Amino acid sequence: MTPLRTYFHPDYSPHEVPSLARLAVAARYLHERGLAELVSPPALDRALLRGLHAESYLAAFECGSEPLASSQGIPWSPRMRDASYAMLAGQLAAVNHALDHGIAMNLARGFHHAVFERGAGFCPINGLAFVAHCRPDLQVFVVDCDEHGGNGTEEYAARLPNLYNASMFGTRFGCIGNARSWPFEVRLARDGRRAHLVALERIEALVRATMPDLLLYQAGADSHEHDPKSCSGFSARALVERDLRVFAMARRLAIPIVVIVAGGYQAAEAIARINAATARCALRAFARNAQSRTGSPGPTSIAAAP
Length: 306
Prior knowledge:
- This protein is α/β, with parallel strands linked by helices.
- It has a single domain (4-304), classed as Arginase, Chain A.
- It has helices at 18-32, 55-63, 78-101, 129-134, 151-159, 188-191, 195-210, 236-253, 268-286, 299-304, and strands at residues 4-7, 36-39, 103-106, 140-144, 163-169, 181-185, 214-218, 257-260.
- An eight-stranded parallel β-sheet has the order 2-1-3-8-7-4-5-6, sandwiched between helices.
- Helix 8 (236-253) links the parallel strand 7 and strand 8 (257-260).
- Helix 1 packs across helix 9, helix 7 (195-210) packs parallel to helix 8 (236-253) and helix 8 runs parallel beside helix 9.
């Protein structure tokens, strides 16, 4: 099995920021199991940020001027700032690899709530809109399956003509939809065991209508039923069904895809296991001649793998 090209640098994961420290745990977990080929991205060219957010916010985030610098909800520090920049560099590197090879992962979180004027919801810079901002030559479609709706990306979809956003969430977080953004609230206990699959069918129809050049997939672990913030209530099996459906769509439509691990609020090891299941789904969907193989793991065995 060829491991999944996965962008990660220790700068992503400063130990003093718990929500970021867990990324190093996931990187080690995936690498030790042969699921991820860890690659460090090059340094970010900060000039690429110009115009993405308000200049006043970018300046405040660069130098730590409060209250804007910490407006995303995590106290600003140089290491937190540098973690954000490193993850943005990984985002662009993953896009470049996916465009050439079909798929890549960025082991990053904290993108989809940031709005033009400031950070929000533990997201300092909108690294999904950043791709569309840096690559106006590409039509970029975000498939956001985090527990929380991608309100920031929704705002950017109204600003950037090459950005589309479909959010499947349990917690709306301000998502109401617009001409290039579509919200899908899914709570399995309320809506039924297959509600996520029905929503993903509708999202695939939108992708087919758009036929973008690139998919960005927010594979949030915080939709898991044991996550303290989850209203989606996805079992491990439902998460695997979700991931397999998204990767199969990308493969079927021949659209390059970048996977972002996004949110998660359980213990770091529990989140790493969910991230590993996502990587296994990606490898299964993109394996050569996958349909001709026998003994391929189904959703339950992928979810239960250590």
